[in-house]
Amino acid sequence: MARSPIYAIPRVILQEILVKLPTRDIARCRCVSRIWRSAIRDPSFQHLHVMASHVDSGVADVLLVSEKLEPERCIEATVLNVTTGKTMCCITNPTGYRLTNVCNGFLCFASHASNAPVVVCNPITGENQSLPNAPPSLGGGGPRRNLFALGFSPSTKEYKLFRLSYSTTTGSSETILDVCTLGDSQGWRRHPNPCPYRPVCDGSPPVLVDGKLYVVMYRANPHTRPDKRPDRLLQIDVASETHCAYGTPEHPKYENPTNDVRVTAFELCGELCLAINTVQWYNPKLQFWVMASKQPAGSRIEDPLHCQWVPRYTFYLNCKLTDDHMNNNRCSDLPRDVWLDDNKMMCYRMGDTLYKYDTRGYSANPNASFVPWNQLKLELPATDQSLSTQRSWSVCGGYRPTLLSPLTFSPPSEDGDEQFENALLRALRCLKSKQRGRPPSEHSNDLRPAKRIC
């Protein structure tokens, strides 16, 4: 009896089996054969898999994004998975684009200083899509700057793009909020209530936790020099598009006013966590606070004591800052990243120094003494100074792979001719796929696997 080939499994049954697998395993299954790859790339199958309850479960991965910039040329960003140690994809964006945030399995790239379209990329599929252009940033206070954030609502299964527009001068501290639901024809719409704070764009990207976006903010004094101490946290509910502001723990007014404070928001085991780095001359302090799951009534008013924060870790970084660093503000400009790796090691990057602490077996006690961190110097490869290429890198947590294609985020076309052409093209491609998927004859030996793209 002749052995049945692997592609003899009916497509419907194959998809019923594959839909039960996690996204990481689905990505590997694309490399089995052309038939399997075609079944997985079917938009209907991708939709079913995204709606499955097991897709968003599990521990989030950590990504390393390395960007290479050449003057007057495009930016090349390489995305690597720190958890698996593998390169995922390489993205080329116009000059001025930077990674703004990570939302489930998508990376959001945008230009802060222009109304250029936002680019969304899926590293698993290698696809990217330019989103609809945002309207001009109208508002008082002189030139304006934009911060984009991609969010997802588990209740509505919708992805939304938010734009926070604010003045770059000291005359206004108001931030205007615009939102666009991806994949529909409504376009951009403006939130009626602006936010009286400015976002901190450097060092703390927006973070998505349980259907809510969190952005670190600061208050700007319209009469004096802006105080950029991050003392507010903007919460945006993706489903309802409402927003409110919370006070951060360890409010800067209780600290030494000469100390510099840096706040980084990130996801810690499904909870929102703030890493607050108080930069002082000797032994900079680092505190981790977790937002309580339920906030008391009246927590929106401007008193940080009305927001419940739970202390998780408190450390001294075991490093002495020189007067040269403090006087030239070099320490404040050092990039900062924070994440929890797959070995439960809390990692905090400040410039070219990485601090790591093993959280296994740690009992959070707010009255405990300060715990020293294990300091590890990063051995970075030397850069050829003869080249004009500039390199930068960042580490991002909260990545959960998905099969959903970013091409589904393009708005539906209202052009009847274009709809007809797209429908005709889909029909022709479907017929072509069926012809390719026809089993070969008994004497055929064409069992070539598909090229590995994952």
TrEMBL record:
Gene3D superfamilies: 1.20.1280.50
Basic and acidic residues compositional bias, start-end: 439-454
Domain F-box: 3-48
Positions of transmembrane segments: none
InterPro entries, A to Z: F-box-assoc_dom_typ3, F-box-assoc_interact_dom, F-box-like_dom_sf, F-box_dom, SCF_F-box_component
Residue ranges, annotated region (Disordered): 433-454
Pfam families: F-box, FBA_3
PANTHER family assigned to the protein according to its UniProt record, in alphabetical order: BNACNNG10540D PROTEIN, F-BOX DOMAIN-CONTAINING PROTEIN
Annotated protein name in UniProt: F-box domain-containing protein
Native species: Lolium multiflorum (Italian ryegrass)
